Amino acid sequence: MDLISLIFPKTCLGCGREGKYICQSCINKLVLLKQLCPYCEKASTDGVTHIKCLKKLRLSGVFSIWPYEGVIRTAILKLKYKFAKEIAKELSEYMANYLKNQPIFPKNLTLTPIPLYFLRENFRGFNQSELVGEPLTKKMGWDFNSDILIRKRFRRPQTELKGKERRRNIKGVFSMNPSYKLQTTSYILFDDVYTTGSTLKEAAKVLKRNGAKEVWGLTIAR
Ligand SMILES: [Zn+2]
Ligand SMILES: [Zn+2]
């Protein structure tokens, strides 16, 4: 045990039990999320976009692992501040265990986290989706690349806005990094929380316009 963990023993963010930030029993308490088609929001196995909802620039599907509540909600909120790296590591382990039993995504994937606007990222020093996405990618045997998309302009944080406003606010906000050449045909856009899906949908359009064959969305929670 290192000195830091002796002084600040890890306790579960959900129940206070010592040992981890996220304990297995708090994870087990979470209900299974019903997966939805990201476009009509009706039930769909594994969150796959219905054939009738699938258009040229659309996501092939979005899979969210847990409901945004309990220990997961607290962990995601904490991810932006203290002990972020440690919490991210634990989250990525639980996610990989979950995903390994669910053959949802195609093979030969590149995972890219939804980028933050660079000033915001610098202020915080990191992108929380990158922090979870990178170790998760390793465990899943996918490729990781956080330099595919660029977030162009400063906009109001999506959390301050509702449905229609969110879509308008995010429109045209992403572009392709000019120095990146598409290497695989399938991509996973990774974000922490799925709300209206407008961020993932907008980012998917950019990848698809630039030649990606399939773009999936993956979030920790919804
Ligand atoms: Zn717990
Ligand atoms: Zn649908």
Automatic annotation (TrEMBL):
InterPro entries hit by this protein: ComF/GntX_DNA_util-trans, DZR_2, PRTase-like, PRTase_dom
Superkingdom of source: Bacteria
Chain ranges passing through the membrane: none
SUPFAM superfamilies, sorted: PRTase-like
Domain Double zinc ribbon residue range list: 4-50
Signal peptide: none
Entry similarity comment: Belongs to the ComF/GntX family.
PANTHER family: DNA UTILIZATION PROTEIN YHGH
Name of the featured protein: Double zinc ribbon domain-containing protein
Organism of this sequence: Candidatus Woesebacteria bacterium GW2011_GWB1_39_12
